[in-house]
Design a protein that fits this description.
Blueprint: E1 2-6, H1 12-20, E2 25-29, H2 32-40, E3 46-53, E4 57-58, H3 60-67, E5 73-81, E6 85-88, E7 98-101, H4 103-108, H5 110-116, E8 121-124, H6 128-138, E9 142-146, H7 148-153, E10 157-160, E11 170-177, E12 187-194, H8 202-212, E13 217-224, E14 232-239, H9 245-257, E15 260-268
Parallel strand pairs: 1-2, 1-3, 7-8, 7-9
Antiparallel strand pairs: 3-4, 3-11, 5-11, 6-9, 6-10, 12-14, 12-15, 13-14
Helix pairs in contact: 8-9
Length: 270
């Protein structure tokens, strides 16, 4: 099996890919879009994508990308503890004035930077592992935020460990594939929907369909529909599978209420 992840080697996505499928051939890619498209076209078997973080919330690029899939769907999930470290060629933390990392990693360490590096320039890049490569190339005044494996791969000094603001920091990854997963007893389903017009109580009506059938919701998010102000796409994860009568009934009712409903996937819950 070929499993695409946000590379290069040493990123948190790389770590998650190794945990999820130790025997898979891991394929580094440059963006979430590239991963999704490679799975859509059948160029790789599966892709692993971060979709939410316990500190910073939704990974919006992934949510938007999953909305546009036609062949690929979510077939699995993995929750991984995320620890960030400040790494550099330098061994003197006082000489650092520019720090690279992925936007999510920077935000997850925002309080640390505010207290210890209020004047430092924080620069976003495509992944935490690429941040290490850039910091090493630029020299001793530069640092990166990354995991321990990336520090080893790029031969960088660890200046400070566990700099994330939330010591319980976790990221939930989803695995996408064109192949449907096997049936399971402990399944989760993800859906996305929007409403055709601005009607009072519309979202309440959807939530009531789940509540009336005792279906447990595990996540609710909204994203701008990218049309007009006030128009949103809602994302819901819930326990159960559409093959269950209660879930199927709820989805049928919701489909009648919404202008658009998409099942993003049904998969074993972690």
């Amino acid at each position: 099996m070929e499993l695409g992840y946000l590379g290069p080697q040493g990123s948190h996505s790389h770590e998650a890919a190794k945990v999820y499928a130790p025997a898979a051939k891991l394929v580094p890619m440059t963006s979430f879009y590239e991963i999704i498209q490679a799975v859509e076209k059948g160029d790789i078997d599966r892709g692993i994508l971060p979709i939410e973080n316990s500190t910073e919330g939704a990974v919006t690029f992934v949510m938007d990308g999953l909305l546009k899939t036609e062949e690929a769907g979510i077939v699995g999930e993995l929750v991984l503890p995320i620890c960030h470290n400040l790494v550099s060629l330098n061994d003197n933390i006082g000489e650092i004035d520019c720090i690279y990392s992925h936007p999510q990693a920077i935000e997850q360490c925002r309080e640390y930077f505010r207290e210890y590096f209020p004047e430092a320039l924080l620069i976003s890049c495509e992944s935490t592992s690429l941040a290490c490569a850039k910091a090493k190339r630029r020299g001793k005044n530069f640092a990166a935020v990354a995991n321990m494996e990336a520090a080893l791969i790029y031969d960088l000094n660890v200046l400070e460990r566990d700099i994330q603001d939330n010591l319980l920091n976790q990221t939930r990854f989803v695995i996408i594939s064109r192949e449907l997963p096997l049936e399971c007893n402990h399944c989760k389903t993800s859906i996305a929907f929007t409403f055709p017009d601005d009607k009072p109580g519309a979202l309440h009506s959807v939530l009531k369909e789940f509540a009336d059938r005792n279906i447990n919701l595990t996540r609710i998010e909204s994203r701008p529909a990218k049309t007009v102000i006030g128009k949103y796409i809602f994302y819901i994860d819930f326990m159960g599978t559409p093959k269950n009568n209660a879930v199927n009934e709820a989805l049928c009712e919701i489909e009648n209420m919404t202008g658009f409903l998409k099942i993003l996937g049904t998969y074993p819950a972690q």
